[in-house]
Write a structure and sequence with these properties.
Length: 208
């Protein structure tokens, strides 16, 4: 029986070249540039575009379905000049983005929901991704990560502490933890965690 093509095979993706000027991905050429890794159903990205009307926000979402649906929603809400979601693996996409020091903020909300050891290779946060984020962040730029899994929070803190150019920027000096999300927008998973009363581990670092 013939296989039916997924309706999302043509979800917008990064241009197929080794180097991509990140500004070329958005029509609006001014405003701080922010990247969300794994926006999923896109609530944070959509709310962030409203909460930060001068910012440009690019989402990198490996699942084509969600990438395309959220990208369409961004445009339907009239936010397409400064908002975009591309169907790409962030671990590959970031290596292509240029120039260095061009991104003001990275957001990673509730990543890596896998528990089996054999799934560790799927983890999005790891040394390679941290190195690319560090390269792309401008001086003073921020990396914000949140999760409802305590062990994951500890793992991210250990991994990111190995990068001396990322300075912990939480409420207490020298520590990355934040009590609240300061960005005026919530991810779908964050909203659910709040509704279920689950503790959320929020962390922030700043580029030296
Ligand atoms: C647990 S979900 C969280 C979704 C959303 N951030 C939230 O908080 O509601 C993790 C998301 O990351 C995406 N993801 C996983 N690995 C990725 C990768 N390598 N590049 C881009 N997105 C990825 C998944 O498809 C999924 O949408």
């Amino acid at each position: 029986m013939a296989r039916v093509a997924s309706p999302y095979v043509d979800a917008p993706r990064l241009p197929d070249s080794d180097e991509v000027d990140v500004a070329s991905l958005l029509t609006q050429q001014t405003g701080e540039l922010e990247i969300e890794i794994g926006p999923g159903r896109g609530m944070f990205l959509l709310e962030r575009l409203v909460a930060a009307p001068a910012a440009r926000v690019l989402g990198l979402e490996i699942r084509r379905k969600w990438s395309q649906l959220v990208d369409e929603k961004v445009r339907a809400r009239g936010l397409g000049a400064r908002g975009r979601v591309l169907a790409d693996d962030a671990r590959v996409a970031l290596t292509k983005l240029r120039p260095d020091a061009s991104v003001t903020r990275f957001f990673v909300h509730f990543p890596d929901p896998w528990w089996k050891k054999r799934h560790a290779k799927r983890f999005v946060i790891g040394d390679a991704l941290i190195a690319e984020i560090t390269r792309l962040l401008r001086s003073g730029g921020e990396l914000y990560v949140q999760t409802d899994v305590e062990d994951r929070a500890a793992q991210y803190m250990t991994e990111i502490a190995r990068e001396p150019r990322l300075i912990a920027a939480g409420e207490v000096e020298g520590h990355p933890r934040l009590a609240c999300n300061p960005y005026g927008a919530r991810s779908n998973r964050e909203k659910r965690a709040d509704e279920d009363g689950l503790p959320v581990h929020r962390m922030r670092w700043r580029r030296a």
